[in-house]
Amino acid sequence: EVQLVESGGGLVQPGRSLRLSCAASGFTFDDYAMHWVRQAPGKGLEWVSGLTWNSGNIAYADSVKGRFTISRDNAKNSLYLQMNSLRVEDTALYYCAKDRRSAGATLDYWGQGTLVTVSS
Amino acid sequence: DIQMTQSPSSLSASVGDRVTITCRASQSISNYLNWYQQKPGKAPNLLIYTASSLQSGVPSRFSGSGSGTDFTLTISSLQPEDFATYYCQQSYSMPRTFGQGTKVEIK
Question: Which of A9, A111, B83, B89 has its CA 20 to 30 A from that of B45?
Fold first, then answer.
């Protein structure tokens, strides 16, 4: 059974940093691209970032480019999101999601999310 | 960036109704279009990928069609468990973008 478990969320002040983690199990992690998607309270889905199976291709939404860094450790079956210079508008539930393929953007499994609240 | 626009933003329907949701891309995305269902307090669930392929385990009452810029998600006979919010998403180019969502409510 595919499982994605996010952690690392919490309350943080504007301008500070936070690192999210996603622990994956139930599939061959290094065969698939992975993504982060967020959802602000009461709002729709926003794709944040994604990377291919070997981290050869990495992309970000314009809203986070230059502030967030996605990475993966295939030996640890883990995905990460380093979030710097956080803003109030980054407040959201952050989902880790698995791709159907090694490179792409069709998200077939999702975690339950970790909540990030940016507030002074 | 490619903009994805869904219509309607919300709709009310009864059990057994045929429901159609439309998604329009701001430029051609071939068939690189996915549909997701999200219920309150839950993570999204992939329904349809590459415009018309049914994800494993998804009931056959769900279907997708379209190519280029115009796409449709159809629920042939709405069931109680289908009341949710539906999102389209393009996987054609970076950054990946979602539509704003369509909330399907009980009439």
Answer: A9
**H helix intervals, chain B:** none
Per-residue pLDDT of chain B (107 residues; tens, 9 = 90+): 999 999 999 999 999 999 999 999 999 999 999 999 999 999 999 999 999 999 999 999 999 999 999 999 999 999 999 999 999 999 999 899 999 999 999 88
Put simply, the answer to whether A50 touches B97 (Cβ < 8 Å) is: no
Please give the Cα distance from B44 to B81 (Å, whole number).
14
C-alpha distances in Å from residue A85, one per residue of A95, A113, A118, B61: 20, 21, 10, 45
Chain A residues within 8 A of B43 when measuring between CB atoms? 95, 110-113
